[in-house]
Each structure stands twice: as C-alpha cells, then as structure tokens.
Design goal:
- With 416 residues, this protein is of the alpha+beta class.
- The protein folds into three domains: 119 residues, Butyryl-Coa Dehydrogenase, subunit A, domain 1; 109 residues, Butyryl-CoA Dehydrogenase, subunit A, domain 2 (Beta Barrel); 152 residues, Butyryl-CoA Dehydrogenase, subunit A, domain 3 (Up-down Bundle).
- Helix content is 49%, strand content 13%.
- The protein is built from twelve helices and nine strands.
- Strands 1, 2, 3, 4, 5, 6 and 7 form a seven-stranded mixed beta sheet that branches. The protein has a two-stranded antiparallel sheet with strand order 8-9.
- Strand 2 and strand 3 form a beta hairpin.
- The relative contact order is 0.11.
Length: 416
C-alpha cells in the first residue's frame, strides 16, 4: 500500500481486523447477491457491528471508535474488495450516521445512531427522485404538518437498502415555505405505515443491496423525527452539503479496494499465463498496464489521505468540497480504468465468470455515476477553485511577466 508510511499502528491493526472480517464473508453470499437470490444481507451488517467495525469515526459514547477519516479509508479499501453492494451497505452507517451525529438531537443519537453502529438496525437514504437526479433541489417530495406530526408524500428512487433497511433518511420540502432551499428538511422515517417499496431494480451490477423505489403516501413522521427536532425544520440544505462528504469519500475509498482486487487478480494471472514461450507479464503491452494500474491506485490513495487530513483539520468548506469532489472523481475513474486493464490482461477468460473481474467491472461502473456524477464533480471542482482563486492575491513569482513580449500591454485584450 502506497500510504503505508502514513498509517499509525492503530490503522495497521484496524486493517488487519477488517481483512479478517472480509475474509470470513461467505463466498456463497456474494454469489447469491449477484444472482439476486439475496436482496438485503442483514447478517453482514450485524457481524460488522458485533466486531466494532461500523461507524468508526463516531464517538465512543455511541459505540463508535472515535477514529479519523484516514482510518475509515483504510477500512473502506478492505471492504471494497467485496464489491459495491456490501461496501455501500457498510458505508451507509457512516453516511446516515454523519447526519445524525452532526445535526441530530441527543434523543435521536441514542435511539438511532447507537443501534446503527451496533449493526442492530439497517439504514438507507433517499436523495434521487424519478424526475430529478443531480438536481437535488428540484425534489418534489412534500411534508405537510398537522400539529406535532408531518405527513410525507412523494417518491425516492435508487435507494440502496430500500428492500431491507429499518430507517430511512428522507429529504422533503415542508409545505408553506416558498424558497426550496429553506423548505428542504431531513426526516428520519421508520419503515411502516405509508412507506412502500414500489419497485426493486434489476441492476447491471451492484446487486443484492435491495436497491428500489420508495413511495411515501402520507407517511406519518412525528416532529421529534425531524433531523434536529423542531430546530431542524428547513435545515435540509445544510444536512445535504455535510452528507456529501461521507457520500463521496466512502465511494472513493471503496473504489480503490475494487480496483486493487482486480489488479491483484490480473497480476497473478500475468505471472502464470504463458504465451510465445514466456510469461505474459514479460510483454510490455501487459506489464505497462500493471504499472499504470499501480500508479493510479497509489495516486488515488494519496489524494484521499490528503483530503481526509483537510477534513480533519477543518479546512474551508469550499476547499473541502473541492478536494472531496476530486477524490471521488479521481478514485472512481482510476478504479474503472484499473478494472478494464485487468480484463484486458486476462483476455477472453476475463469476460467470463471464471474470474470475478467481470463482476467488478459491472460493479465499479455505477460509482462514477452515483452520489453526484463525475461530471457534477467537475463542476464543483472548477467552481470552488475559481471561488478561491478569484479572492486570492498571487504569491511567488509573476510568471506571466517572463514572456518576451510581456510589456506589450495593448496586446492583452480581454473584452472585459
């Protein structure tokens, strides 16, 4: 691992524990999930909770380990080798837990965060709607208040865990507030009355996580289940922006695990498979793909660790948004390229189910789309860069003046 020198003894110990847990996951579970014979592996989360491997970043008083983001990334890479579905279900405790830990009332933390971390309840979140994907604030889910009760109506789709989760974090607009950003509110909705799983998707990959469409028909939610209680009404925009940190960082961390798994399969294959009288890893067409893959994964890990350090240090919101977006974009695209390299090295056999590379390819494709497409990541990256760049005073050498014709100011027309 390229970041070995950056790990603490605690990180190394954690990695070993997670590797042991991952090694214990039954092969048949992975096969059954990919065949849609299992739609929500609750036992996986229960065991991870029993071993103290969920919610690593959260305080010990709620059952967490109080670890930094770096440590969670170490764990995510190991869980990532299992594929996207289990990595996502594992990450949802971090994602939904972030919202509750940062914005929830003490009662909500005791009622929901603690059992989430213990693996006693499964959680999911509803962001995307049938009429909107990346345009979060175009959401049409509504919340009507009557006394101390809200009634939620609307739909959320592509909800991982829709089929089996016990608790849903749902965003909806509170009726009577015109500004959509001020109306947006986050609700903790328990599975029950008014909550229906209308459809479970047939997916190309990332199967077995119970990904479906949720329909809310006047689902009753007490005010105490508004995230943050009464004070949380209209606070959904702030919750959304905060949650994009774990949403995207967990994708970045898990993607590296998937890429690494594919690379290791390809490297072993290249060292054993012979053609034209020698091992195929002796051919540049093959070994350059290994080199490129190693470099991509090492660079992605390093970027993720730098982003983690910035988050922990409390960098400016704009800088954090930019780095988180860079991490998500670069890691997922790097993993996609690495998995494709692995399939190319294996050749025709890589396109069969003799090796799990074809499953990793099907799985990894989704991560460049979800939690904000990588095109949206580009928008965020350049926006936050210009926000900071435009306010800063140039430091260091004035490089523009190094041109021979720099003094001809009349030639520098900008049509401003």
């Amino acid at each position: 691992m390229s970041v070995q020198a950056m790990l603490t003894e605690e990180d190394v110990s954690l990695r070993r524990r997670v590797q042991e847990f991952v090694a214990s996951v039954p092969r048949q579970l992975l096969l059954d999930m990919d065949a849609d014979a299992v739609t929500y592996p609750k036992e996986f989360l229960q065991e991870a909770g029993r071993l103290g491997l969920l919610g690593l970043r959260f305080p010990a008083r709620y059952g967490g380990a109080g670890m930094p983001w770096r440590s969670e990334l170490v764990a995510l890479e190991e869980v990532g080798v299992l594929g996207t579905s289990l990595a996502c279900l594992y990450s949802l405790v971090s994602i939904v837990g972030e919202a509750i830990e940062k914005f929830g009332t003490e009662a909500q933390k005791e009622k929901y965060l603690r059992p989430m971390i213990a693996g006693e309840i499964g959680v999911a979140e509803g962001l995307t709607e049938p009429r909107g994907g990346s345009d979060f604030f175009a959401a049409t889910t509504r919340a009507r208040r009557e006394g101390d009760m809200f009634y939620i109506s609307g739909q959320k789709r592509f909800v991982v865990g829709a089929e089996g989760a016990d608790l849903f974090l749902i965003y909806g607009r509170v009726e009577g507030i015109e500004d959509p950003k001020k109306a947006m509110t986050a609700f903790l909705v328990e599975r029950g009355e008014g909550v229906e799983v209308a459809h479970v998707y047939g997916l190309m990959g990332t199967r077995g996580g119970g990904t479906g469409r949720l329909v809310f028909k006047d689902a009753p939610v007490p005010v105490e289940n508004v995230l943050g209680g009464e004070a949380g009404i209209g606070n959904g925009t702030a919750v959304f922006h905060q949650m994009m940190i774990p949403e995207r960082m967990t994708s970045a961390g898990g993607a590296i695990g998937m890429g690494r798994a594919a690379l290791e399969i390809a490297a072993r294959y290249a060292d054993r498979r012979r053609a034209f009288g020698r091992k195929i890893r002796r051919f540049e067409a093959v070994n350059f793909k290994i080199a490129e893959s190693l470099t991509l994964l090492d660079a992605a890990r390093a970027l993720n660790f730098a982003t983690a350090q910035t988050i922990e240090a409390g960098g400016s919101p704009g800088k954090i948004r930019r780095l988180v977006s860079e991490s998500k974009k670069f890691s997922t695209e790097a993993a996609w390229e690495v998995v494709n390299h692995a399939m190319q090295i294996l050749g025709g056999i890589g396109y069969t189910n003799i090796f799990p590379v074809e499953k990793l390819l099907r799985d990894i494709r989704l991560i460049t789309i979800w939690t904000g497409t990588n095109e949206i990541m580009n928008l965020v990256i350049q926006h936050e860069f210009y926000q900071e760049f435009g306010k800063s005073t140039p430091e260091g050498r004035a490089v523009e003046e190094d041109a021979a014709g720099a003094g001809f100011s009349a030639e520098k027309e900008y049509n401003e």
